[in-house]
Write a structure and sequence with these properties.
Blueprint lengths: L16 E4 L34 E7 L6 H9 L8 E7 L6 H6 L7 E5 L5 H11 L4 E5 L3 E2 L4 H8 L7 E3 L2 E2 L6 H10 L5 E2 L7 E5 H7 L10 H11 L4 E3 L5 E3 L6 H11 L3 H7 L7 H27 L3 H21 L6 H26 L6 H5 L11
Parallel strand pairs: 1-4, 2-3, 2-5, 3-4, 7-11, 8-12
Antiparallel strand pairs: 5-10, 6-12, 7-10, 9-11
Helix pairs in contact: 5-12, 8-12, 10-11, 10-12, 11-12
Amino acid sequence: MSDSRFVPEKEECRPMEIRSDESRGNLIGADHADVRRDISQPQDADSLTVAAIRVSVIIPTLNEEKMIGKCLESLAESCYPLDRFEVILVDNGSTDHTLEIARSFSTRLRLTILQRPGVNISALRNLGAAAAEGEVLAFLDADCSIPVNWFENAVLHLASEYAGVIGGDYEIPEDSSWVARVWFEVGYAPKDGEVTYVPSGNMLMKSSTFRQIGGFNEAIKTSEDCELCFRAREAGFSVRLIREIAATHWSTPQTLLEFYRREVWHGTHVAKVFFQNLRAMTNFWAVAFAAYMLACVAGALIGGIQAILFHRYLILDSSVIGMFVGPFFCSIRKLRFEHGKRFWLNLLPLTLVHLAWGFARATSLVFNRSVSPRATLQGTEDDSPSSG
């Protein structure tokens, strides 16, 4: 497949290429390890010309007509030179106006569209990485918008010889509900520094690092970011969250039901990743809490039958109390650095969201959900490629 991408002047039309690729798109083998300029050599971040680094932004999509415009608009308004980054949109078979909206940005971005229907998000990202020309790979979800200095801050953090995988947490929209605020701003507020994993919807690394790690694992449907970061750490790379490159996540769940559906989907392969990496205990607490909640639910069902038939309530009462005790103590742990009014105002709301999270993850242990909540809402039976 030839690529005729180029960078026109500001007002000149920039042609866009739409390509269909049936190849596997996995970077584990050496087929795609073509020779490109490597920025992994020792460099002084203070003297590095940031804008000289080429970045490839890889965006997986499936029926993202409501979100893709915001995502591409934020890229187009970035401070980074337009001729130093490309956008590779990898579509999973959209049937709405996603591609039509993307085409409207062809005069403002160096945009390439690849089409690969019927695969999971890991395969989409690997395909985009295989086609990328940049020294830095940036994986961005279609429902995220970046700040104007996102590229510069990311490249500065990747300038070191020892840089590994970096990413930014998700910021919630300004008009978010109490569910979103108590979970993403209080209980699980954005972090900064060394972490076990960064979200794949806002993840960056050198292309050489990506090839050395082996790309995303195409055998898993969710938790692919956690699994990749585990392999990165095993290979000696650091994994860091950077507050300066946080992205706004427009699909942040705003109700308990939306949150529950999202967490059922996200939990699909959490246990699988845990059992694949038992030595590292990856996802241990998530799996343990899900198993605890599943035991409570099972106990409540058994206890309910016992109460109806024999008027014995010990198992039922213990199980119901246990359903709330676990989320309650998880919330206390998350709020342990909060004091006074802020602690008490957030304790009950955070306990309720933890309860929904526990039920969702317990459900995902029993039922292997194949359709994401966003795909269901959009009226499609395909896997949604967005993981955020």
